C-alpha cells in the first residue's frame, strides 16, 4: 500500500527536527508533525548551555566525551546559533577540593580542554564573581540559541523536501494488528502554515516508519497504541536576568545540586536550575520559592544577582528515561544518556521507534544514530552528512560576514541582526522598502519580522522564537503591537488581533514570576500602554455588546 | 539652612502639577520638586475620568453618573463627585483651547493607534475631528517608517468595533525623512518648522510635501487622521495648514511612548506653573524626611518638619507647612517593591498587599490584577493611612497614581484621578498652609 511519506517524525524539538533533517538529507521522504510551535516542548525551555562535557566529567564520562565531540561539531555547522563564551567551574571555599580535583582529571580523561585559574584570575575573567571564590576550571562551554538551532534544522529539512507541520497534534496512532503505519493529527488551522481563525482539519498521515521523538510526551504517544514508554519527566526552573551579569558560563564546582549554573544568553543571563520529577509534563506547579532559590543560591557565586532585575522565569521538562527495573529514586541520578526503543524488539509491534532521554548538546549525534536505525529498517544505505554540512544560516559564514554591509541600519541593530541571521542576512535584510526597527530591546527590524512571518504564518510566538522580538527587557510591552502590525495585510484584522492577544498573554506567563522591583514597574507600564491607551482589555471589537456610538460626544465645534 | 515654603509638592506629573496649581490659587508659597521625567510622555494626553466601572461595565456614556456607585476607598469616593467636577473645570481653565469636551458630560470615544476607541472626558483639540461618534468617513494615513501605527489595519479595526462611518487606511512615505528609525520628535520638528525637503517633484516644504503625498489617496473623505506627530510647539498651525491644503479636517491619533500629546500636556502644565509663580525644581529626588521632635502630643500622628532633597549630591533640607506626595504609582516609582514587600519609598507609608507575591497577580493578563491597585489608602482628606487606619502624618496628603484602591488602566480613570485628587490635595494644603 502506498504510504503518504516514508518516515513520519513526531515532535518538533531539537531531536525531531534533527532527525527530519538528517533523513531528508539522505534522500528520504520525511514528514514532521509538532503539537505547537517548533521548540515548544523541552527544546525552547532550556538554559541555552552548549555543554563542553565538563558537567558530566565525573559522573558520566561517556556523556562527557560525547558532549565535547558534539560541542566542536556544532561550532562548525551551527556557528550562527553558538556563542563561544567559555565556561568556568567555580569552587567556593566550602566546596570540596577532592571534587575539584576529580573534575579536573575527569575533563582531561574525556578530552575536554581544561585549565585551572586562581580565584584572582577567575575574577579577572568575570569581575562579578564573589570575592571569596577559591579557584576555577576553565572549559569550552558555550551558549547556544535553541530556537534558532531547531528552526535551522527544520528549514534544512524543508530545503531537502521534508514537510513540516506545526500546530498539528497527534490524536491517534494508526495501528493494524502489530504494525503501526501512521498517525491521525488535528491541525489547529489548515493544514499548512498557521492562520488564526482558519478552521483546522484532521488528517491521517501514513508512513513506512514512525519515529516518536516527543521526549517527555513519548509515554502519552506510546499509550495511543497501548505501548508503555517509561519516560520520567523532570522539571527544572530557569530565571532570566535583564542583562548579562557574566559573559562566561558559570558553573558551581560541586557534585550536584540545584541552582548551580548561569548561562549568558544573547542580551540576558539565564539562571538554572532544579530537577524534580513530575507526573504530567503539561501540568505541574511553577512556584515562587523555586525562583527565589535560583537567585539566593547563585548569589553565592555572583553576589549582584541578589539585587538584579529578572525579566521572567520558565520551566522545562526533561525527558528522562531509565530502563524498566532500574528504580532510581532521585531524578538527578537518572542518566542523561538517550535510549532508542525499537518497539519491534520490545513489544512485538513494528513500524515505530521511540527516542527518550538525551540532551540538547548531543541532539545531532542522537539524530544520526536514530536515522541510521531507520535507514536500516527501510533498507536505505545513504550515510549521515550532518556532522559536516552547515545548517542554513551557517554556510560560509566568515566569508559572507566580511562582505556584508550594514543594510542601512545603525550598527548595534545591524550587528545583532547579522548574528541572528548568519549567512541568510543579505537575503533577509537587503530591501528597498522602509526597514524600521520593530523591537528596540533586541534590535529586530521589519525585514526580519516579515521573513519570520513568511516561514511561520500568523503565529507571533513563532515569529518571536525566530527573531527574539519581544524577548527583551520590556517583554513585548512596546513591540508586541508593532509585531502584530506586520502581519497585516497578509492576515486580516481579526486574525491579527487574535495573534496579538496570544503573544501578549504568552509574554505575561513568564513575566508573572518576575513581578517585583523594576519588572513589576515594567509590567504595570505594559498593562497601562495596552489597556489605557489602546483599550485592548475592553476593546469594543472583541466585546459582545455593540457600542451605541450616537450616545457619546460627537464633538462640540 | 532649609528652603522654606508653605506647600511642598513632591512629584511633577499630572497630579503633582495640578496640586501645585491648586495650592497656588490660595496665595501661598508653593514649591514643586520632581525627580525623573514624568510619565506624561508615556501617556496619550487624553483626560479620562471614568470609561468603565470597576466591574467592567462600559464604555460609560456619562462618567459622572457612575462615580456615585464606586466602592469605598476608591480615590473618587474619597474626594467626592463635586471635587471631580471642580477639578475638571479647573483643568478646562488651564487648558483653554488646547482641549475639547467641556460642552458635554458625555464621554467621547477617541480612536487610538491600536485601532480601537477609548472613552475619555476631555481630549486634545488635535484629536477632536477624529471622534468615533462623528459619522464622517475617514481616511487614516500611516507612515512606512512608523511601525506603531498601521493605518489600514487601524481602519479595519475601527470598523470591527462598529464605528458609524467608513474608514480607510493608507501607508505612505513621510517626505523629508532620511532615516528609517527617526524619532517621532523628528517628524514633529520637520512639520513644526516647515523645513525645506526634497521630493521627486523638487524642493518644497515639509507640510506641502506631506499634503501632496496624501492628496492622491484622498477620495471623498472629509477628515484625515495622522499618527500624533503633527508638530510640537506649533501643532495647531500644522494641523490647520494641512487641513487647508487638503480641504479636510485633520486630526491626530494618540500613540504610545514617546507621546507628543503627552509632552504637549506637560508643556502646558509647566507653563501654567510658571505663570502661577510655583517654584519648580526638577531632577532632584527626595531622599529622606524628619518629623517635628517637639510640640506634638504623644498620641497623635507626627508632623513632617522637613524633607531632604538630594541636589546633585548635596543634601538640602526643604521645609514646608504642608506636603503633597504625588510621586506616581508603580510606573513612576512612587510605589516600589521587593520580592517580599510593596512599599512607598520616601515616607514608608503603608501600602496594603498580600504577603505572598504570587497573590499580587492573576493569570489572565487583562484580568482583575491586584498589583494594578497597589498604592496608599487615604482618608477623605487624602491623608495616607497606616495599617491601623490612622493618618501617617498630620500634614501629608497624597494624590494621583501613588493612591491605591483603583485600577486606572482598566477603568480608564488615570488622568481624572490625578486631576481630582491633585486638585483636592493641593487646595486643602494651600488653605492649611496659608493659615
UniProtKB/TrEMBL annotation, chain A:
Residue intervals of the BFD-like [2Fe-2S]-binding domain: 437-487
Listed transmembrane segments: none
Catalytic activity: a quinone + sn-glycerol 3-phosphate = dihydroxyacetone phosphate + a quinol
Gene3D superfamilies with a match to the protein in the record: BFD-like [2Fe-2S]-binding domain, D-Amino Acid Oxidase, subunit A, domain 2, FAD/NAD(P)-binding domain
Alphabetized PROSITE patterns for the sequence: FAD_G3PDH_2, PROKAR_LIPOPROTEIN
EC number(s) recorded for this UniProt protein: 1.1.5.3
Mode of membrane association: Peripheral membrane protein
GO terms for cellular component: glycerol-3-phosphate dehydrogenase (FAD) complex; plasma membrane
Single Gene Ontology BP annotation: glycerol-3-phosphate metabolic process
Cofactors that this protein relies on: FAD; FMN
Keyword Transcription regulation applies: no
A molecular function (GO) term: glycerol-3-phosphate dehydrogenase (quinone) activity
Domain spans labelled FAD dependent oxidoreductase: 7-362
Pathway the protein contributes to: Polyol metabolism; glycerol degradation via glycerol kinase pathway; glycerone phosphate from sn-glycerol 3-phosphate (anaerobic route): step 1/1
Keywords, alphabetical: Cell membrane, FAD, Flavoprotein, Membrane, Oxidoreductase
Leader sequence residues: none
Entry similarity comment: Belongs to the FAD-dependent glycerol-3-phosphate dehydrogenase family.
UniProt subunit comment: Composed of a catalytic GlpA/B dimer and of membrane bound GlpC.
Database matches in PANTHER family: GLYCEROL-3-PHOSPHATE DEHYDROGENASE (PTHR11985), GLYCEROL-3-PHOSPHATE DEHYDROGENASE, MITOCHONDRIAL (PTHR11985:SF15)
Protein name per the record: glycerol-3-phosphate dehydrogenase
Gene: glpA
From TrEMBL, chain B:
Class of enzymatic activity (EC top level): oxidoreductase
InterPro entries referenced in this protein's UniProt entry, alphabetically: FAD-dep_OxRdtase_2_FAD-bd, FAD-oxidoreductase_2, FAD/NAD-bd_sf, G3P_DH_GlpB_su
Keyword list, A-Z: Flavoprotein, FMN, Oxidoreductase
Single GO term (MF): glycerol-3-phosphate dehydrogenase (quinone) activity
Keyword Flavoprotein attached: yes
GO cellular component: glycerol-3-phosphate dehydrogenase (FAD) complex
Listed SUPFAM superfamilies: FAD/NAD(P)-binding domain (SSF51905)
Spans through the membrane: none
The protein's name: Glycerol-3-phosphate dehydrogenase subunit GlpB
Organism: Natrinema salsiterrestre
Protein's gene: glpB
Amino acid at each position: 500500500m502506498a504510504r503518504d511519506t516514508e518516515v513520519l517524525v513526531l515532535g518538533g524539538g531539537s531531536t525531531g527536527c534533527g532527525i527530519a533533517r538528517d533523513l531528508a538529507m539522505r534522500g528520504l521522504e520525511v514528514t514532521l508533525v509538532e503539537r505547537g510551535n517548533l521548540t515548544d516542548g523541552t527544546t525552547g525551555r532550556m538554559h541555552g548551555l552548549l555543554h563542553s562535557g565538563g558537567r558530566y566529567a565525573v559522573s558520566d564520562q561517556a556523556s562527557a566525551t560525547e558532549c565535547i565531540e558534539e560541542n566542536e561539531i556544532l561550532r562548525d555547522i551551527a556557528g550562527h546559533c553558538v556563542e563561544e563564551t567559555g565556561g568556568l567551574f567555580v569552587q567556593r571555599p566550602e566546596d570540596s577540593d577532592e571534587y575539584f580535583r576529580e573534575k579536573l582529571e575527569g575533563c582531561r580523561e574525556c578530552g575536554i580542554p581544561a585549565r585551572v585559574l586562581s580565584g584572582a584570575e577567575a575574577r579577572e575573567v568575570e569581575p562579578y564573581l564573589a570575592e571569596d571564590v577559591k579557584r576555577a576550571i576553565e572549559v569550552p562551554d558555550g551558549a547556544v540559541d535553541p530556537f534558532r538551532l531547531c528552526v535551522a534544522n527544520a528549514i534544512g529539512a524543508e530545503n531537502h523536501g521534508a514537510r513540516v507541520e506545526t500546530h498539528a497534534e497527534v490524536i491517534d496512532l494508526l495501528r493494524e494488528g502489530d504494525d503501526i503505519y501512521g498517525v491521525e493529527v488535528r491541525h489547529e488551522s489548515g493544514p499548512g502554515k498557521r492562520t488564526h481563525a482558519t478552521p483546522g482539519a484532521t488528517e491521517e498521515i501514513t508512513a513506512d516508519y514512525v519515529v516518536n521523538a516527543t521526549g517527555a510526551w513519548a509515554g502519552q504517544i506510546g499509550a495511543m497504541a497501548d505501548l508503555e514508554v517509561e519516560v520520567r519527566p523532570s522539571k527544572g526552573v530557569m530565571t532570566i536576568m535583564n542583562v548579562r551579569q557574566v559573559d562566561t558560563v558559570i558553573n558551581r564546582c560541586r557534585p550536584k545540586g540545584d541552582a548551580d549554573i548561569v548561562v549568558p544568553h544573547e542580551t540576558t543571563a539565564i539562571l538554572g536550575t532544579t530537577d524534580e520529577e513530575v507526573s504530567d509534563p503539561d501540568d505541574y506547579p511553577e512556584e515562587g520559592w523555586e525562583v527565589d532559590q535560583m537567585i539566593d543560591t547563585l548569589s553565592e557565586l555572583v553576589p549582584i544577582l541578589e539585587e538584579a532585575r529578572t525579566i521572567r522565569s520558565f520551566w522545562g521538562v526533561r525527558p528522562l528515561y531509565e530502563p524498566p527495573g532500574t528504580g532510581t529514586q532521585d531524578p538527578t541520578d537518572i542518566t542523561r544518556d538517550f535510549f532508542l526503543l525499537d518497539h519491534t524488539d520490545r513489544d512485538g509491534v513494528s513500524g515505530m521507534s521511540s527516542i527518550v532521554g538525551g540532551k540538547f548538546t548531543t541532539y545531532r549525534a542522537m539524530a544520526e544514530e536514530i536515522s541510521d536505525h531507520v535507514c536500516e529498517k527501510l533498507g536505505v544505505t545513504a550515510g549521515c552528512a550532518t556532522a559536516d554540512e552547515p545548517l542554513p544560516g551557517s554556510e560560509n559564514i566568515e566569508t559572507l560576514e566580511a562582505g556584508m554591509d550594514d543594510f542601512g541600519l545603525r550598527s548595534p541593530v545591524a550587528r545583532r541582526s547579522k548574528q541572528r541571521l548568519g549567512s541568510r542576512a543579505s537575503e533577509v535584510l537587503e530591501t528597498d522598502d522602509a526597514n524600521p526597527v520593530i523591537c528596540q530591546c533586541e534590535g529586530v527590524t521589519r525585514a526580519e519580522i516579515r521573513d519570520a512571518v513568511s516561514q511561520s504564518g500568523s503565529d507571533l510566538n513563532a515569529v518571536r522564537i525566530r527573531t527574539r522580538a519581544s524577548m527583551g527587557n520590556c517583554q513585548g510591552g512596546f513591540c508586541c503591537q508593532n509585531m502584530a502590525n506586520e502581519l497585516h495585510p497578509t492576515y486580516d484584522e481579526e486574525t491579527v488581533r487574535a495573534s496579538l492577544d496570544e503573544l501578549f498573554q504568552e509574554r505575561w506567563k513568564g513575566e508573572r514570576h518576575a513581578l517585583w522591583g523594576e519588572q513589576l514597574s515594567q509590567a504595570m507600564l505594559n498593562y497601562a500602554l495596552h489597556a489605557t491607551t489602546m483599550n485592548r482589555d475592553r476593546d469594543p471589537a472583541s466585546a459582545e455588546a455593540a457600542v451605541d456610538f450616537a450616545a457619546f460626544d460627537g464633538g462640540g465645534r | 539652612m532649609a528652603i522654606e515654603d508653605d506647600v511642598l509638592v513632591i512629584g511633577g506629573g499630572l497630579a503633582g502639577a495640578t496640586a501645585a496649581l491648586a495650592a497656588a490659587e490660595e496665595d501661598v508659597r508653593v514649591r514643586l520638586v520632581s525627580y525623573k521625567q514624568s510619565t506624561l510622555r508615556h501617556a496619550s494626553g487624553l483626560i479620562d475620568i471614568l470609561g468603565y466601572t470597576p466591574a467592567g461595565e462600559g464604555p460609560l456614556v456619562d462618567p459622572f453618573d457612575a462615580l456615585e456607585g464606586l466602592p469605598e476607598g476608591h480615590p473618587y469616593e474619597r474626594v467626592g463627585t463635586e471635587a471631580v467636577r471642580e477639578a475638571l473645570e479647573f483643568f478646562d481653565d488651564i487648558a483653554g483651547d488646547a482641549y475639547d469636551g467641556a460642552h458635554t458630560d458625555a464621554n467621547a470615544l477617541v480612536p487610538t493607534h491600536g485601532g480601537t476607541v477609548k472613552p475619555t472626558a476631555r481630549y486634545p483639540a488635535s484629536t477632536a475631528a477624529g471622534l468615533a461618534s462623528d459619522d464622517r468617513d475617514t481616511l487614516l494615513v500611516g507612515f512606512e517608517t512608523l511601525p506603531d501605527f498601521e493605518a489600514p489595519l487601524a481602519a479595519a479595526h475601527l470598523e470591527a468595533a462598529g464605528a458609524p462611518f467608513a474608514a480607510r487606511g493608507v501607508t505612505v512615505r513621510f517626505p523629508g525623512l532620511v532615516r528609517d528609525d527617526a524619532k517621532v520628535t523628528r517628524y514633529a520638528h520637520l512639520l513644526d518648522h516647515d523645513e525645506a525637503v526634497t521630493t521627486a517633484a523638487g524642493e518644497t516644504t515639509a507640510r506641502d510635501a506631506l499634503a501632496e503625498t496624501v492628496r492622491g489617496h484622498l477620495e471623498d473623505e472629509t477628515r484625515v487622521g495622522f499618527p500624533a506627530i503633527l508638530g510640537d510647539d506649533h501643532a495647531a498651525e500644522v494641523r490647520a495648514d494641512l487641513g487647508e491644503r487638503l480641504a479636510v479636517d485633520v486630526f491626530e491619533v494618540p500613540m504610545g511612548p514617546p507621546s507628543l500629546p503627552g509632552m504637549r500636556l506637560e508643556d502646558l502644565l509647566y507653563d501654567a506653573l510658571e505663570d502661577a509663580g510655583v517654584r519648580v525644581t526638577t531632577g532632584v529626588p527626595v531622599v529622606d524626611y524628619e518629623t517635628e521632635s517637639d510640640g506634638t502630643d504623644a498620641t497623635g500622628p507626627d508632623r513632617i518638619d522637613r524633607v531632604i532633597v538630594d541636589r546633585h549630591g548635596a543634601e538640602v533640607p526643604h521645609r514646608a507647612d504642608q506636603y503633597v506626595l504625588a510621586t506616581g504609582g508603580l510606573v513612576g516609582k512612587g510605589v516600589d517593591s521587593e520580592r517580599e514587600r510593596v512599599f512607598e519609598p520616601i515616607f514608608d507609608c503603608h501600602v496594603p498587599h498580600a504577603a505572598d507575591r504570587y497573590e499580587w497577580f492573576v493569570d489572565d493578563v487583562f484580568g482583575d490584577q491586584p498589583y494594578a491597585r497597589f498604592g496608599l489608602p487615604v482618608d477623605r482628606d487624602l491623608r495616607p493611612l497606616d495599617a491601623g487606619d490612622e493618618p501617617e502624618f498630620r500634614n501629608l496628603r497624597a494624590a494621583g497614581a501613588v493612591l491605591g484602591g483603583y485600577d486606572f488602566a482598566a477603568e480608564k480613570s488615570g488622568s481624572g484621578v490625578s486631576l481630582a485628587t491633585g486638585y483636592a490635595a493641593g487646595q486643602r494644603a494651600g488653605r492649611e498652609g496659608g493659615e
